[in-house]
Amino acid sequence: MDWLVNLIAVIVALASVLAALGHVGYLALLNNAAGKRAGGAPVAQYVKSRWAVAGGTTAASLFAWLLTAGGPTLDIFAIIVAAGSGVVATKALQSTRDRYRTGG
After folding, report:
1. Which of 18, 29, 58, 78 could form a disulfide with 67 if both were Cys (CB 3.0 to 4.6 A apart)?
2. How many whole angstroms separate alpha carbon 58 and alpha carbon 24?
């Protein structure tokens, strides 16, 4: 039974890391595009304000992944931390995408 809890914890932690890194990557792409455009200062300022959220969720996700190396109690804690940081990273990514979505 312990291996099943650990497997669930690892899967949730990996999904959380992917969501957090997706947010970091999207912010990096936005920042790069804003730096190349003449009127990109407002976008660069917005991206600068979002780095703390992206870094925090990434750190929490990696911490949760590290916790999966412990016993079943740490696995439960890792699931909680990973799920929370994954949800925050996903919502932050979605709000950033909605803000700068172009038609097409």
Report:
1. 78
2. 8
The answer to whether 64 and 56 are in contact (CB under 8 A) is no
**pLDDT, one tens digit for every residue, the chain (104 residues):** 899 999 999 999 999 999 999 999 999 999 999 999 888 899 999 999 999 999 999 999 999 999 999 999 999 999 999 999 999 999 999 999 998 887 54
Rounded CA-CA distance 104/102 in Å is: 6
Question: pTM (2 decimals)?
Answer: 0.90
> Is the torsion defined by CA of 97, 58, 60, 86 positive or negative?
positive
Burial class of 41 by CB neighbour count within 10 A (0 to 12, 13 to 18, 19+): exposed
What are the residue ranges of helices labelled H in 1-104? 2-36, 41-67, 72-99
Q: Minimal CA–CA distance to 21: which of 48, 52, 59?
A: 59
Dist CA 54 CA 22 (whole Å): 9
